[in-house]
Amino acid sequence: MDAPEEPLPPVIYTMENKPIVTCAGDQNLFTSIYPTLSQQLPREPMEWRRSYGRAPKMIHLESNFVQFKEELLPKEGNKALLTFPFLHIYWTECCDTEVYKATVKDDLTKWQNVLKAYSSVDWLIVVVENDAKKKNKTNILPRTSIVDKIRNDFCNKQSDRCVVLSDPLKDSSRTQESWNAFLTKLRTLLLMSFTKNLGKFEDDMRTLREKRTEPGWSFCEYFMVQEELAFVFEMLQQFEDALVQYDELDALFSQYVVNFGAGDGANWLTFFCQPVKSWNGLILRKPIDMEKRELIQRQEATLLDLRSYLFSRQCTLLLFLQRPWEVAQRALELLHSCVQELKLLEVSVPPGALDCWVFLSCLEVLQRIEGCCDRAQIDSNIAHTVGLWSYATEKLKSLGYLCGLVSEKGPNSEDLNRTVDLLAGLGAERPETANTAQSPYKKLKEALSSVEAFEKHYLDLSHATIEMFTSIGRIRSAKLVGKDLAEFYMRKKSPQKAEMYLQGALKNYLAEGWALPITHTRKQLAECQKRLGQIENYLQTSSLLASDQHLTTDEREYFCREILSFASQQTNSPGHRVALPMHSFAQLRDLRFTPANAVVHVGGVLSVEITVCSQMPVPIHVEQIAIHVHFSIDKNNYRKTAEWLTKHKTANGVINFPAEASPFPTSQSSLPALELYEMFERSPSDNSLNTTGIICKNVHMLLRRQESGTSLEASSGLALEDGAHVLRCAGVTLQPGPNTIVFKTQAREPGTYTLRQLCASLGPVWFVLPHIYPLVQYDVYSQEPQLLVEPLADSLLAGIPQKVKFTVTTGHYTVKNGDSLQLSNIDAMLILCPEKNRAVIYSNAREKVSDALLRVQSSDKVTSISLPAAPTYHLIEFELEVLSLPSAPAAGGESTLLGVTEPHGKHKDKQKTGHGMATTDHKVSIDCPWSIYSTVIALTFSVPFRTTHSLLSSGTRKYVQVCVQNLSELDFQLSDSCLVDTHDSTDLRLIPLNTESEQCIHSRQAVFFVWELKWTQEPPPSLHCRFSIGFSPASEEQLSISLKPYTYEFQVENFFTLYNVRAEISPPPGTEHCRTGSLCSLDVTITRLSDLLEVDKDEALTESDEYFSTKLMYEVVDNSSNWAVCGKSSGVISMPVTAQAMHRVHMEVMPLFAGYLPLPDVRLFKYLPHHSAQSSQLDADSWIENDSLSVDKHVDDQLDSGSVKSRGSVHSAASSEHKGLPMPRLRALPPGQAFNSSAGTQVLVIPSKDDHVLEVSVT
After folding, report:
1. Quick check: 136 pLDDT over 60?
2. Which CATH number fits domain 786-886+907-941: 2.60.40.1510, 3.60.20.30, 3.40.605.10, 3.40.470.10?
3. For the chain, what is the largest distance between any 2 Cα atoms, rounded to a whole number of angstroms?
4. What residues contact 514, with CB distance under 8 A and at least 6 apart?
5. CATH number of 20-200
6. Which residues, 6 or more positions from 672, have their beta carbon under 8 angstroms from its beta carbon?
7. What is the rounded average pLDDT of the residues 1172-1179?
């Protein structure tokens, strides 16, 4: 601190500014304490809690202590915070009451009155205690008396505003404690003052900003106010908060400029619209550029002045925050935005002035960053600074072109005058850079001084920028700088240096798909190649430009004439050819084969029609267009018959080729879709639209660099194929747009022909499509003659005429008059030929050629079909009818007719189809005139009917039922049904119950026929029957032959009724009806209806003195679970074999449900005991109770499976006790031998009175 007696120096806006604290009272006392105070105050941080919910911060407080003067107190309306005293301290070490009353009290009173006059409430009284003075004074009061008096006189309500500092110059614990308490109080009061005064200042500033819509509002005035706040934050070393203030000013000014461009301009903006007269660039080497600040304060600053000053302050703060790379980023944004703002404000700028300002500013920022960073940091952060290098290079190039430093003849007088004017606008070099050898000012002045100096500086900057872009992987940007460098070399007549850069830029544009830059760069490259004498490359580029739709017609025609001019020249080497890509000359759109399937036989003619779209702007006469074809013989050529090739070829014969990509290697389909969103910005005050635009959210994906290894424009070394197989078309004139060209060829050798290349020749210039894709092939085949026989319907039906199609493929064989097909006849199938049946001859492309009457001759063994004459590779088609006849009867009672089987047998040739129809195969041998071997074909016929029979009984009366099912899709008319006994028994009569002579049977339906059996004597043990019925299709068509009837043979055995079973249920005594849960009586009566017959003579028959008897087993089961059988439900009885013999069985049953319940089933079985010694000792019922009984397998299907399983499960546990004992067998009676006369009878069961839940069975 300077001596307190010295006058207060004027405020200088530097980084050394500190908050002001005034000192009144004993100045000598304060002077002695000041060194310690200045060191101790900033040592400990304090937490600063600010208003509006802002986060607290830890700050170190420093202060500028000055002598108290009334002039330092702020006047009303003064907004300067840097000169504002935040705290006032009064120092005294008075320890004598008399002295206090005489002088100190009056001095304190005057001091406080002055503070009150200026409404200053931030003050503190410090009483310093000194032990040495206390020892010299004997009549003084204790120290607390002086402090108490001061507190009573001046600190009635704020006693903490008076503090004691004990022996501040001593080194003791008491002194240290006193210092700590004093410093804590001082820091607290300072922070309270900061918070209060800064909050008031911010409120005033906010109020001022809200008045910005008023007419007299001034941005410059507001700028100074908010910058004052930034200075305070900077003074407190809160650089982030200070930077926020400048960023807010930056954003506010930018918004006003944007609004001005939209037509909503503020009056104060006119101060910044004055013409630019100085363009000396940014000044970043001073903490504060006072010159430009004063211009802003006086409202005389230009737009560049304001932007320069504002950025210099932001730069200073960013460097304090150690964020130099953000300086580079902000600088690049600033330079671009300034250019746009000058245009929006329509500020008058001399040509080249803005380029100078940008160039100087770029170098100034780069040198400022280099000054605070070492080389390693700079090299590792090139990505942040390379944009400034690139922008400086671009502006230096613009200045070179503007000042005539790139022209062939050098600058003229006008260029020199312009250069002088630009250098004059730079003004004198600033003192801070005057001693710097490579200052931006010196570099620009030197670069504009001569052509050689400009070339040196421009090349150095360009190469350095390219190297930096390359080192960080920004190849795209490096190529764009290289393109500018190529333009410079072209101006300098150095095309050999320019070519590399132009190729690189073109490669980059092609990879990313920039159409207009591609066109522009190709024009430059064409000029470069023409100067270098690169004829082939020049012709290739010219063809691309001649087809470029982005050029004018005159430009396209010029490049087209360049190609035609070279093509018309006579070259020294006649065989020399220049091969160029086809896609720039013409594009292959589609290809059409005739025949359409691209399959032709040897000797046939194939036509290939192509459509090419000429890209040239004028008609072009082409000497010839050729298609080079590759011939190959397939190893599996035996498979490639005409039929096989037809199935594997396109049907329409047209092959479309994808539209030629753009010249861009990256297909548009592989790029992600554009994610575009509308953007609107509205004014917060009146919601009016300020700006609108479109934002692409995935620009980082779309602009991703697509790098490839080879040059996209370099000639790919196109190779012309030379071979024997070439399709040519000479003398073709290609008009602009689509053109159709037809090639014809005659097939000579079988194999596969692949179209490889398409070439168009104009003298020595050949345009080549090296690969035709997708793959295009045509096939030439040599086919053996073939015969194909196939039914016209999905399946052939037996018994009715069916149509069969014969297809003769002649192949390489010529069918002559007299050639015939010899079919071997078989007994089971007839071959029919309708009258006036004709054979049709087709070409290989299925075009009808002719037809002829078909002649068919039949003998006993052979049917001969005469073929009409037909040339090679044609088809002969005709239709015949076949009829499958019944086969001879098979021995052993098996099937006899039409593949119908009996229950006990199956024909070996019969199979079931998917519809359940039986099938029969007939094999026919055919001798063809072109082969010495016979061809055997198999025809499969399906029997349309399925027939079943059943025996029905009513007591002793017997009936035979025959069911005929139609399994086919046709409807049939049935007639003359008949059932006969094949043994011609005179005692048996079959009386039909169907009286209708004709019946219609529809598809998937069945018809039943019933006959009653009557006999006069004892019935035979078996009955052999044959069922026959006539049938014909229900359609109205008349058949050419009469059809044989459909027959079905079957056998019925043991059909006479031997036993009548009758069951009866009685309610409990004393009740009228059965009730649920009550026991009821079940009486079963088994009656023998006949005497001993032949069928009774088996193992169960036993003979006694008076009569024969047989063993029967009965079983009572209820599968519907309506009854519960109580006690034994089965048993074995001995039944006399005499007529009207009767046996009764009584048991008890319990109904489980209410309602009309059907009676339980009563079943009878033959009981066949095993003849052994042990078996005779066992009671018959014990077999039932203790053993499982076996039932003969051949009648197992006649038994109820549930009852058999029931017996087995109940008695299986006891079977182990009799292991090794003989087991009797059960055999079910045939269906006709036992008649249940109680079948269908129902008993009424009423619910019991105690039931709460009623369950009723309804049957």
Report:
1. no
2. 2.60.40.1510
3. 175
4. none
5. 3.40.50
6. 698, 701, 702
7. 40
Whether the Cβ atoms of residue 998 and residue 975 lie closer than 8 Å to each other: yes
**Secondary structure of residue 131 in the 3-state scheme:** helix
Task: Give the C-alpha separation, 141 to 266, whole Å.
Answer: 70
Task: Give 819-861 pLDDT, tens digit per residue.
Answer: 999 999 888 888 887 778 889 999 877 888 999 888 888 888 8
Helix or strand or coil: residue 1177? helix
Task: Enter the pTM of the model.
Answer: 0.59
- Quote the CA–CA distance of 811 and 816 in Å, as a whole number: 13
- For 1240, phi then psi, to 5°, come to 90, -5
Residue 921 CA to residue 942 CA, distance in Å, equals 9
The closest of 621, 613, 583 to 736, measured between CA atoms, is: 613
Domain 576-651+732-779 belongs to what architecture?
A: Sandwich (2.60)
**DSSP-assigned letter for residue 811:** T
User: Phi, psi at residue 1084, to the nearest 5°?
Assistant: -115, 125
Q: What is the DSSP letter of 838?
A: E
- Sign for the pseudo-dihedral over CA of 70, 73, 77, 79: positive
**Three-class SS state of 841:** strand
Q: Which of 352, 394, 356 is nearest to 280 (CA)?
A: 356
SS3 letters across 1042-1098 = CCCCEEEEEEEECCCCCEEEEEEEECCCCCCCEECCCCEEEEEEEEECCCCCHHHCC
Distances (CA, A) of 1052 to 184, 189, 643, 906, 949: 128, 128, 55, 18, 9
Pick from 964, 968, 1048: which is nearest to 1006 by CA?
Answer: 964
Q: Which residues pair with 1115 in a beta bridge?
A: 1130, 1163
Tokens read off for 156:
């009635």
CATH class of 945-1053: mainly beta
Backbone phi, then psi, for 469, in 5-degree steps?
-60, -40
Only one residue has tokens 């709460």, namely: 1252
Q: Provide DSSP, 39-71.
A: HHTTTS-EEE--STTPPPEEE----EEEE--GG
Are 1033 and 971 within 8 A, CB to CB? yes
What is the spatial distance between Cα 979 and Cα 985, in angstroms, rounded to a whole number? 13
Collapsing DSSP to helix, strand or coil, 650 comes out as: coil
Give mean pLDDT, residues 761-790. Answer: 90
Q: What are the DSSP calls for 1099-1131, one per residue? A: TTEEE-SS-EEEEEEEEEE-TT--EEEES--EE
Residue 859, helix vs strand vs coil:
coil
